[in-house]
Each structure stands twice: as structure tokens, then as C-alpha cells.
Design a protein that fits this description.
single chain; about 475 residues; alpha/beta; Urease, subunit C, domain 1; 16 helices
Length: about 475
């Protein structure tokens, strides 16, 4: 795959006739004087970048000229950030994440039960590139008639058992979603306690047959981790654990060791993290089915997104009845830092925002890593952070999603999806009370050669296109 991709890029280079900077006056856009970092080749130096027809057409040490020039002096010029875990697939959410440097936002954990409808609804261009998995959760909700109005089960879809006939239909629907171009298969066993591991494993097998990766919010602590890895091993599926920081908690060292052990044994296992100590989910989900037995002090860890207030037994009960989202506080900064710094993790936001309410990770995840962990604390190098945000997410998918072989890189022939940021000022600003405050320090964001963020503000351009698996 890597050799094939390099050959494709070389052919593209020849067709562009710009590897050496020829036809410079024909560049649509030129970026000058920026520190260009390409995580695949290891390039890290001041260069000029020429863009033509949505592709990177030239990277040189000297000057280039074009119809438009961005002076990136003092800025880093990076491949656009690829978010594998973004629930907010809407114009509103896209407008926040793109100002955090995200150029491709994929919903791969929960996904959707309707791949055809998901892509049809977004035809004609979005702010960012977009895509989704075919979701085990959503298919299960439909088959069992779950009453939930959100993206997660609020009853029988999570807790109910599946009949043999329904299991056959589940397999058919997931296979159909893959045939329609789903990026992956999404799972949330933590949200579907009624799904036995045999059900999950059977759907792992469907993903494996198509070569698609399985992205899972697992359940059950370390024993659940082990059983999930074992099911993936038996089926041969490529496995991706979402938000290992959230799933592991204080067991983060053991979880990361488990990922490394699986990799060392020859399994294709990857994982991700978001850089915040609190999580967020729907309050009617199965994660809280035991809420009535909680001690009083546990409610205080839960912040109702609707009001911003910490919950009491009474307000939690009311919110469970009405629905909505809840932010769960409690993980330590040590857990977050270990997950962010680990060479095993990618960065992904797990973002979700609706009507101006949500979690700060939607608008701040990437800037927080660059500002806090790279610049301020120095626990992560800049090239390493960019690797986690760009090439690694692309590699996770490119075996079955051909377009990803041209993303996550900054080299001739690659898609001109580019994030330009000031390493001295970049930082998140959103909070648990106001998730809509955009990051600062992200000067320009370019998608397919078009500027979608200009000096921190979203433009009218809508060049974002569908990211899809193979349509059969």
C-alpha cells in the first residue's frame, strides 16, 4: 500500500509539472515563509508551498508566486487535522472544529444506521470533509424499536436481546452500509449491555470480510478490553479503541500496555484520546441505568449541559426523564497527560455540540494539545503531536478508504488540506460552561486548496467533500 501510494504521488507530481516549481505563475495559492512539517517524509523546515487544482503542486526552499499568497511567517504549516471521532456532523459543529484546525471530521464510533442518507444529506459541499461508519448502535436501535431521540439507546435498544432472525438482519444492514461506502463499522458495547460478546464478534467478522476497521467504545474495564481484543483476534478485524482515556480511567497504564501487547503479537490495534479530564454523553444512555443506587456525592461529578449546573439526585432524575447531555467530571490530569503523550494514541475530539451547548473538546482539542502539552509543558514534541493528528488517522483508514492516502501529508501530490497555526499563541479557549468559544492561534485552514478559515474566521467556502469506503 505504501509503495502504491508513493507511485501514485510520483505520477501526480509529473502530471502537475511542478515538482521543481515550474509554471509557478499558475499556482492558485502560495504559502510562503512558514515552517512546513510533513509527518511522513520528516520534512521540517521553512518552505514555500504552491497549490493548484486542490493539490499540493510544489514545495521549495525559494520563493513561489501565484494568484494569491499567504505569508505564514512565524507559523507552522501542517497537514490538516483528521478527527476520527466527531459526533457533531452539522454546519454548527463544523464551524467550531474547523477553527481548531480540523479539515476532515469523521463519525466512526456511533456512526449512522443509514449510510446512504448520511451522505445524501451533505451533498454539495460542507465546511470540512466528512464521513461516517455504519453503526451497530443505530442498527440495533432500529431493530429493537428503541425510544431514544438522540444518537444513543435510551431503553431496549441498549438493554434488549436480539433474536436469531434480528441478528441475521443486523448483519445484512451492516453489510449493506459497507457496500454503500461506510468508512468503518462503529460499536459502543458500553451503551449496549444487552449485546452479548458473541453479537459484537459476529459483526466484527462482517467488518473483517470487507477489510473495514471496527471502532469501539468498549465496556467492562480490563476484562472487557481483553475480551474485545480476543474477539478481534479471532475474526481478524482491524480494531480501534475510541477514547482510551475515558475507557481506562485510572487503569490507563494497563490499557496502554494491553494495546502494545496486542500490537507486538501482530494484531492491528490502534487507539485515540481527547485532552480533557471530563467526558460527555447522553443522560438517558445505559451508562447511567444504575443511577438510583448512587451515593449523593456521585451526582456532584455530573454537570447538566442544559443548565451548566452540577447535578443533584433530584435534577439528575428530571434530566433522565427529559433527555439531554451530561458532562462527567472525575479523571485526573495525570490520566489525561499519559494518554496524550503515549506514542500509541492519536488525537480525536469525541466532539458534539447542539444549539451552542456541548463539551469544549469540539472546539478546542487540537489547540489544547498544541498549546498546553507541546508549548507550555513540553511533554510532547511538535512533530509528534502533528503525527498524532494527521498521518496516523489517515493510516488507520487508508487500506479501505482510498482518499485517505492523499490526506495527513504535506507533500507534492497530496490533497491541499492544510492547517496554518502560530505555535506561540495557539490554545483552546472553550470551557465546560461555554463550548462555543473558538480556539485562538489557528490563522488559516485550507481544504482542497480553498481557504475555509481566514485569520480565525470561517469563510463562505464549502469545499469539504465525502470521505467514503469502497462503494460496491
Amino acid at each position: 500500500m505504501k509503495l502504491q501510494r508513493l507511485v501514485q504521488l510520483a505520477l501526480t507530481c509529473v502530471m502537475l509539472t511542478a515538482c521543481g516549481g515550474e509554471d509557478a505563475d499558475n499556482f492558485d495559492l502560495v504559502i510562503t515563509h512558514g515552517r512546513v512539517i510533513d509527518p511522513e517524509s520528516g520534512l521540517d523546515g521553512v518552505r514555500s508551498v504552491g497549490i493548484r487544482d486542490g493539490k499540493v503542486a510544489s514545495i521549495v526552499e525559494g520563493e513561489l508566486t501565484g494568484r494569491r499568497t499567504i505569508d505564514a511567517t512565524g507559523h507552522v504549516v501542517s497537514p490538516g487535522f483528521i478527527d476520527l471521532h466527531e459526533h457533531g456532523q452539522s454546519e454548527e459543529a463544523y464551524s467550531y472544529m474547523v477553527r481548531d484546525g480540523v479539515t476532515t471530521a469523521l463519525e466512526l464510533e456511533v456512526g449512522t444506521a443509514d449510510i446512504h442518507g448520511f451522505y445524501a444529506d451533505r451533498e454539495g459541499g460542507q465546511i470540512v470533509n466528512y464521513g461516517a461508519s455504519i453503526g451497530h448502535i443505530g442498527v440495533r436501535m432500529e431493530l429493537l424499536g428503541d425510544p431514544g431521540a438522540g444518537i444513543l439507546p435510551a431503553g431496549i435498544g441498549g438493554s434488549g436481546s436480539i433474536t436469531a432472525e434480528q441478528l441475521d438482519e443486523m448483519e445484512r444492514r451492516i453489510r449493506e452500509g459497507l457496500d454503500q461506502g461506510a468508512v468503518a463499522v462503529g460499536f459502543g458495547s458500553a451503551y449496549t449491555p444487552g449485546a452479548e460478546m458473541s453479537e459484537i464478534e459476529r459483526m466484527f467478522g462482517v467488518a473483517a470480510e470487507s477489510g473495514a476497521s471496527a471502532h469501539i467504545h468498549m465496556r467492562g474495564g480490563l476484562s472487557g478490553f481483553d475480551s474485545t481484543v480476543a474477539a478481534a483476534r479471532r475474526t481478524g478485524v482491524s480494531l480501534h479503541f475510541v477514547h482510551i482515556n475515558s475507557s481506562a480511567g485510572d487503569d490507563i497504564d494497563a490499557f496502554l500496555d494491553g494495546v502494545q501487547t496486542a500490537v507486538d503479537a501482530g494484531q492491528d490495534v490502534t487507539t485515540e484520546t481527547y485532552p480533557y479530564g471530563a467526558g460527555m454523553t447522553e443522560i438517558q444512555s445505559a451508562l447511567f441505568d444504575d443511577w438510583e443506587s448512587w451515593p449523593e456525592e456521585r451526582f456532584e461529578l455530573h454537570q447538566l449541559v442544559s443548565s451548566g449546573e452540577r447535578a443533584t439526585r433530584e435534577t439528575f432524575a428530571q434530566a433522565r426523564e427529559e433527555g439531554g447531555a451530561v458532562i462527567i467530571h472525575g479523571r485526573t490530569e495525570e490520566v489525561t497527560r499519559k494518554a496524550v503523550v503515549s506514542p500509541l494514541t492519536m488525537i480525536a475530539s469525541d466532539g458534539f455540540i447542539v444549539d451552542g451547548r456541548g463539551h469544549p473538546r469540539t472546539s478546542g482539542s487540537y489547540s489544547k494539545v498544541l498549546g498546553q502539552y507541546v508549548r507550555d509543558e513540553g511533554v510532547l514534541s511538535l512533530p509528534e503531536a502533528i503525527r498524532k493528528m494527521t498521518i496516523e488517522p489517515a493510516r488507520r483508514l487508508e487500506a479501505t478508504v482510498e482518499s485517505m492516502a492523499s490526506k495527513g501529508r504535506l507533500q507534492v501530490g497530496a490533497d491541499a488540506d492544510i492547517t496554518i497555526f502560530d505555535p506561540a499563541t495557539v490554545i483552546d479557549r472553550s470551557t465546560y460552561l461555554d463550548a462555543t468559544i473558538p480556539s485562538t492561534g489557528i490563522g488559516w485552514v485550507i481544504i482542497a486548496g480553498e481557504v475555509v478559515v481566514e485569520l480565525g474566521e470561517v469563510t463562505a467556502a464549502r469545499p469539504g467533500r465525502a470521505v467514503r469506503g469502497r462503494v460496491r
